[in-house]
């Protein structure tokens, strides 16, 4: 075992609160038949994980990060992803970014909960897809079967939204608008809401075309920031 990986595991273990581990396992739905069945937690807060990631990310190789990213422990995986985000932001060349993206894509099976996806997808894959015209990566994930891949793809477009580019978000949301899982409904509605903050007219046009076909959760998320009378019209189907 790499010494730096051992140091990170020990640093995280020192921050673990066993009582929180049980709470997290309930919150993240790890029971039989739930969306995160079998995931295990140490009981470490996200701010503490961010602090550990910040302390170590400059002194760890991508191969060593992969050891943490493939861990059974949720907090090991999230800390690994946070280190990858930090490394990606500091990368000076496309070659460096390519290596981080390759590691991310080759370990997608470990980005298997909404917090893991949401904390890493737009800052790594979204940024990469936007900067290097690689929307094909996100389209491929959005069309693949695993629900987590679809959520990663949709949330990754948050980077595009921040750059006032909305077409890819609308495309990927539309591709999965009828997905059966509530976590996709929330992700789709969230991205539409974020688009609406930047471009209200784009959101209204999209809603007017699709709102009657949206799952209720998606619609509620999407219209959350609209004026109340307009919200009620969408909720009541009066548009």
Automatic annotation (TrEMBL):
Family annotation (Gene3D superfamilies): 1.25.10.90
Coiled-coil regions listed: none
Entry-linked Pfam families: DNA_alkylation
InterPro entries linked: ARM-type_fold, DNA_alkylation
Protein name: 3-methyladenine DNA glycosylase AlkD
Organism: Chryseobacterium camelliae
């Amino acid at each position: 075992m790499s010494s730096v990986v051992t140091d990170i595991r020990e640093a995280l273990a020192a921050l673990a609160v066993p009582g929180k581990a049980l709470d997290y396992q309930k919150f993240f739905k790890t029971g039989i038949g739930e969306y995160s069945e079998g995931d295990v937690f140490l009981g470490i807060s996200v701010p503490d994980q961010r602090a550990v990631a910040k302390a170590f990310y400059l002194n760890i190789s991508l191969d060593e990060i992969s050891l943490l990213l493939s861990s059974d422990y949720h907090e090991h995986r999230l800390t690994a992803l946070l280190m990858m985000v930090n490394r990606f932001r500091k990368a000076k060349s496309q070659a460096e970014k390519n290596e981080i993206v390759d590691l991310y894509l080759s370990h997608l099976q470990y980005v298997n909960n909404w917090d893991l996806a949401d904390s890493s997808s737009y800052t790594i894959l979204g940024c990469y897809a936007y900067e290097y015209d690689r929307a094909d990566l996100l389209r491929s994930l959005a069309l693949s079967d695993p629900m987590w891949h679809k959520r990663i793809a949709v949330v990754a477009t948050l980077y595009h939204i921040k750059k006032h580019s909305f077409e890819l978000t609308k495309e990927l949301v539309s591709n999965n608008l009828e997905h059966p899982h509530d976590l996709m409904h929330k992700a789709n509605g969230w991205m539409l809401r974020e688009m609406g903050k930047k471009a209200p007219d784009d959101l209204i046009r999209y809603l007017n075309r699709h709102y009657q076909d949206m799952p209720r959760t998606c619609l509620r998320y999407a219209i959350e920031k609209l004026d109340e009378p307009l919200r009620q019209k969408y909720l009541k189907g009066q548009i």
